[in-house]
């Protein structure tokens, strides 16, 4: 049995997390190759593909013609072409949507099944990794390429690293490096994504929200200066008129029932009136029966003294996480 089979299912908040390696089976890489790849992706994604190079990856989104997000993504250079990282659950749906308009373009879009994704985070993780790599990505150069590994730096909720392993040799290597840290899975990575306010999607929530409603404008994921792409007119109108009424918020509370993604979060006022305040995008169980939620919430309810409850549990309260 390899070390990577011995998962620790305890999920920590970022401030409590020891040095940890996470096997990210619920994230994947999609490759886009061909001479028309830049032009085609610029017509489909919200970011400017020309800003992606061997020193910089970028956050973006793929939207439908109504401007609703199929998936947030991280776009990077992959050899001579491009690749992007998304959640595995929505990969097939997103790839099929991206392929719809590719018949007249010289591009090939496919799920890369020959890679392994790992996350690294926690106390002292940078110093541990520097024992194995001569250098790591920085804020200005947020990606580094080695022979068998690509390393991406993520800044929030604190410095952490995502590694793309392209050969089985790398898999053996990470079995070795794991001896120096806690071994966990992608529930821990999901918790860190929630704390960083990066939007998470599944098959129930994809295609329902604008990028601005998912805070993707704060990630510089939307470009209005590169030319036309699907959903651009809608996004521009929302940006110009400032009419977005939703925002991503993080809630925390105690409950024995994990709220279902796509279910509603409710608020009860002093007069006992009940309101649907938002939609659950992601949920994860922490230590001591605590639950961390990512909610796409109506802005009128984004008041720090408000409390909420899930549609599956009317007793236990959720508060804003800080």
UniProtKB/TrEMBL annotation:
<dbReference type="InterPro" id="IPR045179">
    <property type="entry name" value="YgfZ/GcvT"/>
</dbReference>
<dbReference type="GO" id="GO:0016226">
    <property type="term" value="P:iron-sulfur cluster assembly"/>
</dbReference>
<protein>
    <submittedName>
        <fullName>Folate-binding protein</fullName>
    </submittedName>
</protein>
<dbReference type="InterPro" id="IPR017703">
    <property type="entry name" value="YgfZ/GCV_T_CS"/>
</dbReference>
């Amino acid at each position: 049995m390899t070390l990577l089979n011995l998962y620790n299912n305890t999920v920590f908040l970022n401030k409590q997390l020891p040095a940890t390696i996470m096997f990210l089976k619920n994230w994947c890489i999609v490759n886009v190759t061909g001479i028309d790849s830049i032009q085609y992706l610029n017509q489909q994604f919200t970011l400017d593909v020309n800003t992606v190079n061997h020193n910089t990856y970028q956050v973006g989104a793929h939207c439908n013609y109504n401007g609703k997000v199929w998936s947030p993504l991280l776009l990077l250079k992959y050899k001579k072409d491009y690749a992007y990282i998304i959640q595995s659950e929505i990969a097939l749906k997103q790839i099929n949507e991206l392929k719809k308009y590719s018949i007249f373009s010289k591009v090939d879009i496919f799920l890369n099944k020959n890679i392994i994704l790992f996350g690294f985070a926690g106390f002292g993780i940078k110093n541990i990794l520097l024992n194995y790599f001569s250098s790591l990505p920085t804020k200005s150069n947020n990606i580094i390429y080695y022979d068998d590994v690509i390393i991406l730096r993520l800044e929030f909720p604190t410095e952490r690293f995502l590694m793309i392993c392209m050969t089985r040799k790398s898999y053996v290597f990470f079995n070795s490096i794991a001896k120096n840290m806690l071994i966990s899975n992608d529930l821990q990575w999901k918790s860190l994504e929630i704390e960083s306010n990066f939007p998470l999607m599944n098959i129930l929530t994809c295609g329902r929200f604008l990028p601005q409603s998912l805070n993707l404008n704060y990630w510089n994921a939307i470009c209005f200066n590169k030319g036309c792409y699907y959903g651009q007119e809608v996004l521009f109108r929302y940006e110009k008129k400032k009419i977005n009424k939703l925002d991503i918020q993080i809630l925390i509370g105690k409950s024995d029932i994990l709220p279902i993604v796509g279910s509603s979060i409710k608020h009860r006022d002093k007069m006992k009136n009940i309101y649907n305040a938002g939609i659950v995008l992601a949920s994860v169980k922490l230590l001591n029966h605590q639950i961390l939620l990512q909610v796409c919430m109506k802005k009128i309810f984004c008041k720090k003294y408000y409390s909420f409850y899930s549609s599956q549990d009317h007793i236990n309260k959720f508060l804003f996480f800080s």
